[in-house]
Amino acid sequence: MPPVPNNSIAEIDLYYERRGSGDPLLLIQGLGGNSLHWGEPLLADLERDFELILYDHRGAGRSAALNGACTIASLAADAAALLDVLEIASAHVVASRWAGWSPRSSRCSRPSVCAR
Fold this sequence. Notes:
Elements (H helix, E strand, L loop, with lengths): L3 E6 L2 E9 L2 E6 L11 H7 L3 E6 L16 H14 L6 E4 L5 H9 L7
Parallel strand pairs: 3-4, 3-5
Antiparallel strand pairs: 1-2, 2-4
Helix pairs in contact: 2-3
């Protein structure tokens, strides 16, 4: 599936892509990173077994500029809202660096969001 330009998610325009097939796998980059930082070799490997959902945080990469505060809770809400918009009830999650706190925060507020 081709990249999807910015879409209004959680009241901010987030850039995201969906590619591959299989169980959903949400890829969350660390602050200041964006979806390009995963690297094509890794994405090509993963998309053979998973439907990848990768996105740029608010204020990063191809998403809209940051307007106001950015907290771990707001980033977790963005990830959960993205899955909601895509009608994905549950996903495996891989987060790099500090981004590991986003799925933990999502899991605390909505345990059904993160499959593992």
